[in-house]
Hints:
With 270 residues, the protein is mostly helical. It is 57% helix and 8% strand. It is built from nine helices and three strands. The protein has helices at residues 2-19, 36-66, 68-86, 90-117, 127-140, 155-168, 186-206, 231-234, 263-266; strands at residues 172-179, 214-220, 240-246. Helix 7 links the parallel strand 1 (172-179) and strand 2. The longest helix has 31 residues, at 36-66.
Amino acid sequence: MMQALTQCIAIGLISTAITGCASNNILSKPDYPFEHHQAQTNRISDAVRIATVRIAQLNHSGGADCIPARMYRMQQLARTIRQEHEIGLNQEAALNLRILDQQIQNAEDGLAYLQINTACQQHLEDPRIIALTPLLEKITQNTFTSNSHTLPTSMPLQLDQLAHWLKTHPAYRITLIGHTDSQGEKEKNDLLALQRATALANYLRTQRVLNYQIKIDAQGEFNPISSNAFESMRYINRRVSLEVNLLVPSQKLTSKIKEWPSITDIWGGK
């Protein structure tokens, strides 16, 4: 009997050594919304998208004319990061994202300096659009319920103000861009984003804003402004952003730098 008990104890010790802990001491698994590796993947996906948007904004605000070589290098690094992320090299992608973030910051600062101190200037801001910007930002801050395109309760009053502005400024057009979080299928998110933008457009039409002043677009889950890892963050992505443009744009300012370097020049003629 004593020998059998000794064997049971020995077997128990061996089992404990293999599993790393006794059964009554096993720690419960943290209840995270994603596995650790999946959370890292989501963060990198969001960071890549945001970096892509920042590069595009730089490009359209004067980067293509003032700092073309630097823009090209950032675009190539962003492409490398996307490729690394797609094949699962997330550690390498994360390291390159840090480099890209610093490059974008340096480019933003450098472009601002060039536009102030040289002939390489960005387009003059429209004072009417500048005055309207706070209202546009307020409308964008309204967030939608998950899987819904019903207008948030605080939005109609703000849309009334926007409708009045558009009717008194018939030479301007509003672009409504629908967005979603990353939950669910991409195709459904694309449709939901379009439905959200359409909901705003339909309301503006009920306020007698003319069709030619309304443009609808949708980016689905592509352009987040917050992380999609947690509900406390991703609700911010369920929104409609707005852009106002003059239908007859003013003449572009001439820049000293007019052409991008060719690929053959950058690759040494190869």
